[in-house]
Design brief:
Helix content is 8%, strand content 45%. It is mostly beta strands.
Length: 582
């Protein structure tokens, strides 16, 4: 049974007297730090990345990673496959010199060269001394960073293929977490890969859940890699994170979340409907035409046809459509197969010109007798005759336009799928909780506290409310979501920004920021002073926030990443790193 969890707004976090944002002309101090030798590495969409999932994955990928334990330290990977640290000294109000903390070796990075289909690098800090790096290709890297507040070099602890013994390339790391399980260190990871399902004839997101476990064998510490579960969804993934102890994973998507095994079983169940398929056959003295009713979404590569002059074996995946000895011999090399929206057609040429009493020597009871005996020209004529024989659908009733429109009518009129946040528990292999978000996805995700799961923001009226998982160690099955904070009128602001690329807020919610693709950065401070005594008529004194607009020079290039810290915004562009003092 799936428990429905409601998002309960904490009224104490709301500000009913908030009256919007006022544009401020105060300058925002900005410090530019140009790249010395190598720019930030960014892979573009390849020509076979044409799905919506690919576009979202590459367009929204943040190439700048903030350290939750040291917010003013940020990291990116340059074109020389080096992890670069960018740090800001709060005491001196100046940026420190960029520092290379780790260099990917060719043996660490596969063949060391880009192949079409590779994704960008992604990393997650799991503790004060460990980091998980995904190379965007096939591998995870567990790195020991030491004290990142000091100038320490990183070292490689272990590496593993995301899917062992697989040639699949192109992964993005969604989340990683370090837990102590039975006195042993366990690092859990979940990575996403966009693949195309042949049975469904569409793209889907494949989520691979795995972990490293540290064990001591013969007085030596060894990290063992285990792939735990694979989940998949045909929709976009807006949020994907572990809960504490990593026994469950929280996924927000507009598609149904399934395990790989569940998807395989459903596909087989669908195919079982066609295990003894209905087929119609027709003939002339020279030709045999067989028409099959097959599942939608298949293509010719899913079929296996083996035939000779007197025998035929025709399969869809592992399901037999037609197999046996023909009533008489045919010209095997002249057999034609055609697949379209009306089904699958198989055409064979007889060796001897005469009418067959049946198709197979052991005739299938479900097969129908020939439809007609007149001469046929080709498959197209058969399809036209089949279409003409179908009954015309009854006309739809004329709607009464004078009736008032109800809310349910508006909901039915929208084609947008429902977005749900679900909790998948590993030991039960099932979804135990879900949160319905309607048709509006989470506005953004952010890290509010080091070591905690990321928070997500939803629109509540005109505000943007931030929510955080509430884990109950005493009762782990009681999963809830807590209202952590509120950004006043920020939901209304986001609705007006059509060119937004990155969205984030300060961990203490002192400001929120929107970065466009190239030039503009919008900063909103909801906790501003009162509006000089301004008040509504016959009402309480109102509060007005402050808005800053930062316009970047064209020579900075596109904005590739963004990170936030108290009083600091770090931007990664194509040509430089920018520090904005807020």
């Amino acid at each position: 049974m799936v428990t429905v969890v409601d998002l309960k707004v904490d009224r104490n976090l709301l500000c009913p007297n908030f009256d919007g944002y006022k544009l401020s002309f105060d300058s925002v101090p900005m410090l530019r730090q140009s790249f010395r030798h190598y720019n930030a590495l960014k892979y573009e969409l390849y020509k076979n990345h044409y799905s919506l999932l690919h576009t979202e994955l590459f367009a929204k990928h943040n190439l700048l990673t903030a350290d939750p334990w040291a917010r003013r330290n940020t990291y990116f990977v340059n074109t020389n496959h080096e992890v670069v640290q960018c740090s800001f000294d709060e005491i001196r109000s100046d940026a420190r010199k960029p520092r290379i903390v780790y260099k990917m070796q060719f043996e660490d990075n596969g063949d060391g060269s880009y192949q079409p289909g590779d994704y960008n690098y992604s990393m997650r800090f799991i503790s004060e001394k460990y980091c998980v790096l995904c190379d965007g290709r096939q591998s995870y890297f567990l790195l020991e960073t030491g004290d990142r507040r000091r100038h320490t070099e990183w070292r490689l602890v272990t590496k593993s293929n995301i899917i062992p013994f697989s040639e699949t390339r192109g992964f993005v790391l969604y989340d990683a977490r370090l837990d102590i399980v039975h006195g042993r260190k366990q690092v859990s990871m979940v990575a996403g890969h966009v693949t195309r399902s042949r049975s469904m004839d569409r793209h889907l997101m494949l989520l691979t859940w795995s972990y490293w476990m540290l064990q001591n064998l013969e007085k030596e510490d060894i990290w063992f890699y285990v792939k735990r579960e694979q989940l998949q969804t045909v929709g976009s993934v807006y949020y994907c994170a572990f809960e504490p102890h990593s026994e469950s994973i929280i996924v927000c998507t507009d598609g149904q979340l399934k395990t790989a095994e569940e998807a395989r079983v459903e596909t087989l169940q669908e195919l079982n409907k066609y295990s003894c398929p209905q087929y119609k056959w027709s003939q002339t003295e020279r030709d045999i035409v067989v028409k099959f009713d097959v599942p939608t979404g298949t293509n010719l590569c899913n079929y296996d046809l083996k035939y000779s002059y007197s025998h035929i074996a025709f399969k869809l995946y592992e399901q037999t459509l037609l197999e046996g000895t023909l009533y008489a011999r045919v010209h095997g090399d002249l057999t034609i197969i055609q697949l379209d929206e009306n089904g699958l057609t198989l055409k064979m040429i007889k060796e001897e010109d005469f009418l067959w009493p049946q198709l197979m020597q052991c005739e299938d009871e479900e097969a129908e007798q020939p439809l007609f005996d007149e001469e046929i020209g080709d498959v197209g004529e058969i399809e036209e005759e089949a279409e003409s024989s179908e009954a015309e659908p009854e006309p739809l009733p004329i709607p009464n336009l004078e009736e008032p429109i109800e809310e349910c009518d508006l909901a039915m009129a929208t084609d947008e799928p429902e977005i749900q946040m679900v909790r998948y528990k590993l030991h039960e292999s099932a979804i135990t909780h879900k949160v319905s978000l309607g048709n509006i996805p989470p506005l953004f995700t952010t890290s509010l506290r080091a070591g905690f799961p990321p928070a997500f923001a939803t629109r509540e009226g005109v505000d943007a409310s931030l929510w955080l998982q509430s884990y109950q160690p005493v009762n782990p099955s009681d999963w809830k979501v807590r209202h952590e904070g509120n950004l006043h009128a920020f939901g209304y602001v986001l609705a007006s920004k059509q060119q937004r690329k990155f969205i984030d807020c300060c961990p203490d919610l002192e400001y929120a920021v929107i970065a466009e693709t190239r030039r503009h950065v919008f900063i909103y401070k909801p906790r501003n002073d009162s509006a000089d005594g301004l008040r509504n008529r016959n009402g309480a004194q109102v509060i007005v926030g402050k808005q800053h607009l930062v316009t970047l020079n064209d020579d900075f290039g596109d904005i590739l990443g963004m990170a936030t810290a108290p009083n600091l915004i770090t931007l990664l562009t194509a040509k430089a790193v920018l520090f904005l003092s807020v």
